[in-house]
Design goal:
cytoplasm; 6-stranded antiparallel sheet; Suc6P_hydrolase; beta-fructofuranosidase activity; Glyco_hydro_32; mainly beta; 472 residues; globular
Length: 472
Amino acid sequence: MILKSKRPLFHLTPKENWMNDPNGFSYFKGEYHLFYQYYPYNPYWGDMHWGHAKSKDLMSWEHLPIALRPDMEFDQDGCFSGSAVEDDGKLHIFYTAIRYSKSSISQSGNKIPADEKSLISTQAYAFTEDGIHFKKKKEPIIACPKEVGDEAYFRDPKVWKKDQYWYMVVGSKSLDKEQGNILVYKSSNLVDWQYLSSITKGDIGRMWECPDLFELEGKDIFLFSPIDGGEDEQKNIACYYTGSFNYEKGDFKFEDFDMLDYGFEYYAPQSMLDSKNRRILVGWLVMEEPLDANENWTGMMTLPRVLSLRNGRLQFDVVDEIKSYRRESLQKKDVVVNKQYELNFQHENTFEMNLEVEIKDNFELQLFSDEKKGLKLSYNSKNRQVVINREDVMNDSKAMVFGKERKSPQLLVNNNLKLRIFADKSVVEVFINDGQYVMSAIVNPREEQKKIIVKGNSPLKNIEIWRLEKIF
């Protein structure tokens, strides 16, 4: 028997139907706003709208009316991804307006482009004064510069302010080759935009979606989601470069590269700077369809992650607000594991766990387990990698199409491995060694898969676990 409800409590999901990319992540009039790509008529991709939710603490979200609909001639086939900034008491929205040159009908009956080259893309603008009602500008604000870009691959504007000017990066691809790039724009008033430059690095992906560029602790960070930038089952990935951005010329000096998440499904993240000066990142965990026939929703967001730098690389942590939802807890120290140890704790697959392991041998942690089968988190002392395997918690769901196993980069653990784990009914996020790396996975556990089991002979220096609860 499958769990009665697989909808997460703390990962934002659509009230019903389809969700993808986070959009317009912002702080406006004392509340966090998170928009998202949304199809309101069935749980499959179709003509994109902007769904909308708000929160005071990034954990409890209130669904609001649809913010943007494809109701203008220039966006009649979709309001694609974009961003939002607050200025002068208004929330300013920038999004990609879509028309199809050719269309077809999907297996679910939704209108879709005939192919990816059938998109006619421009950048468009809307605003709100109250966070509920939105007014669009009656024509696009930026057309694709034909000398450097392709209008079929021109989307996802991200806007921010530096000194007295506003800047925008838009995802794109090169005209003459299968190579991703971004186009950079500059404005003094959020209305009139001047093309500044094109930035590319030709060794990853054939188009760069969902770009984001910001300063963090003296470094410039460039996030992007390159199409066909990955390997194996997941071709589309989310990653970043550290470097330095020249605001006069629009040049980016690329330095270190890394993935934003080493698990499954993670894509199209977007960041914002909140009133506490935290750089917070939210990503989309891809689902192709509902987990099973009993569910009427598709897609979810990650928990909001605070970004910092450590040794020149991004470090990740879940926002502190989640601690307000901790309930019963259990703590144990210096636990000896003799082949197998079961953690006796009632949690209903919604919990936070901190685990510190003294590595003496190979180590395995099973979550969502029935004693024999579960989500396996293991550490191989020879390869020094954390491995996540979800084969035994997929349970025939077709929502998860990106494989069964992922591996972290090699770790320098000095015989000490630290894991911070958030389980939320049908999803798990694993933060390795104080957030050096993150591995996320959507899962589909059965009703009896609720146990937490440790296998191997490595002692547990510390275990802390809290049941997480949200009262509606």
